[in-house]
Every structure is written in C-alpha cells, then in structure tokens.
Amino acid sequence: IIPIMLMIGVLHQMITDGILAQKIIQLREYEGKSFEEIACDLGMQPAAVRMQLSRARKTIRECYRKYSYE
Fold first, then answer.
1. Predicted TM-score (pTM) of this structure
2. Which of 8, 22, 28, 45 is the 20 to 30 Å CA partner of 60?
3. Helix H or strand E encompassing 42
C-alpha cells in the first residue's frame, strides 16, 4: 500500500507537470487505448504521445523515489 503522503506528492507533481500528461496516462493506463487512439483523440502524433507518456512515467518514478526516502 502506498502511503497517502506519497500519493499526494505524486499527484501534486503531476498537476504541476501538466494536464496533458495526466490525460495521456489516463487514456493509456486506465482506459487501455493505443498510442494511435490517444494521438487521434488529442490531435497529436503517436510519437509525441509516446514521448509525453515516457516523461510522465519518469516524473512518477522520480516523485516516488523522492517521497519514499523522506
């Protein structure tokens, strides 16, 4: 179980990093859409979606590491 303060920290970081990253994570991880479907939904290229998702996941990892060691 992830501590509540860790989740709050991660969510705060996601908000400050942008709504687009949140939307891409939601569409990919929770709704199971393909990169092509997400790109079509958001008016982006699939490569741009992959890059944004990669950056968002990196942010989540960094937040997790930061808050889990505090």
1. 0.69
2. 45
3. helix 35-42
